[in-house]
Design a protein that fits this description.
This protein is an alpha/beta fold. It has three domains: 35 residues; 201 residues, Spore Coat Polysaccharide Biosynthesis Protein SpsA, Chain A (Alpha-Beta Complex), CATH 3.90.550.10; 126 residues, no CATH class. It has 16 helices and eight strands. Helix 11 packs parallel to helix 16, helix 12 runs antiparallel to helix 13 and helix 12 crosses helix 16. The longest helix has 23 residues. The protein is globular and about 70 Å long.
Length: 366
Amino acid sequence: MDNERMCGDPRLFDLLLYKIIVPPGIWIRITHLFHNRWMQKRISVIIPNYNGATTIGKCLEAALSSAYPDFEVVAVDDCSTDSSIEIIKRFPCILVALDLHSGASGARNAGARQASGDILFFIDADCILQNDALSLAAKAIVDGEDKVVGGTYTAIPYDDSFFSTFQSIFIHYSETKKREPDYIATHAMVINRSLFIKSGGFPEDFLPIIEDVEFSHRLRRSGHSLVMYPAILVKHIFNFTFTKSLRNAFRKSMFWTEYSLANRDVFTNSGTASRELKANVVSLFVSLLLLLAYFIWKKVMLLFVLPLLVSFNVFLNRGLIMAFYQTKGLFFALGATFYYMTVYPLAVGVGALAGMWRYVRSGRKV
């Protein structure tokens, strides 16, 4: 028997309250409380973990501190070789320890199989769930069972260093531009358990990353909608340095390019793989070619093209540049824009070339 049947007809409850002499403000609060109880569903927070000893404790502490009244936390350890399991055992959560290393997809699927909630909320082991995220997720998904709800990173990360903040603002801006995005990322993905089971879960025989992109595309092709709710937030622990930032850009670009070629959607405006970023990469490489041509042929006219190219690139990426400025001020925006338009696209471009090579060499669809 569901909650609504157990509690009765909410309209009848309203009528009875209205017939009784109750102050209007108190009456509204009482009816709101009872209506919320009818809408409440149990949420399972699923956290895959692999050698995340430095972050999993903070992640679990935040998740278990949620203000939502009915939830569980399922931590899936994917054969970690560090002290992750010992840390997880300190918390009142469900621990699923895998016997074989299965990757993030396998860990998430295993967590979903152990979950008892009506709603599954996937996050990562280096994410700090905000206190109201579960309540917002429950409200967002109550409209229907045929959609996948997404949240995103806070603009300011847990570790507020330059490269970590650059990445957090970039992802927050990129993922929240559209109400109906191209994909929902698993750092904050909310889905009804019945729909997840019906979908077959995340692909386990796949690339090491972006399994959430494949999952999102598969559900959308089967008629389900993807909806972004920017208020559902997790604070990410990046710990990025200059080297880690570029390595991350290269790796994601490589696998994303390989997948996009197989999926035939290279030019799709897809979250962090946005048209603005792609134009930014092209702009940098064209600029480098123009400079090379100038040094070879000494044609001054080649240099006149550069300011036009840079200006056009700034115009295309004005939204992200404004996000840098609004979040951290002028000096950060200047530094972040310079990094985004000079060094970062170099790593993305080289990663894209590596992804093309992987795709051609494999000779098969991802």
